[in-house]
Write a structure and sequence with these properties.
Length: 79
C-alpha cells in the first residue's frame, strides 16, 4: 500500500474557502427559525423559492463573525 503524500504547495485560497463555508453555515443556522415561521423548510428549498432566498439573503446581510482571513461585519453589505 502506498503512503499518502502531503501536498507539495499550500493553497493560498483555502482560508477564504473556509470563511465562505462558515458564513453560509452560520446564515443557514440563523435562518432556520425564520423559515419555520414562514412555513418553509430548508430541505424543501429549490432555486425558484423566493421566500427562502430572501430569508437567506437577509441573514447573510446581518451576519458578523471573525473569520480566518478577516473580521467580517455584514458579509453582504451591498447585496
Amino acid at each position: 500500500m502506498s503512503e499518502v503524500q502531503p501536498p507539495k504547495k499550500a493553497n493560498n485560497l483555502a482560508p477564504f474557502a473556509y470563511d465562505a463555508v462558515l458564513a453560509l453555515a452560520l446564515a443557514l443556522n440563523r435562518s432556520r427559525d425564520l423559515l419555520i415561521n414562514n412555513g418553509e423548510k430548508l430541505v424543501a428549498f429549490h432555486y425558484n423559492d423566493s421566500t427562502t432566498s430572501s430569508i437567506l439573503r437577509k441573514t447573510m446581510k446581518e451576519l458578523t463573525f471573525q473569520g480566518m482571513t478577516v473580521s467580517l461585519t455584514h458579509v453582504m453589505r451591498n447585496a
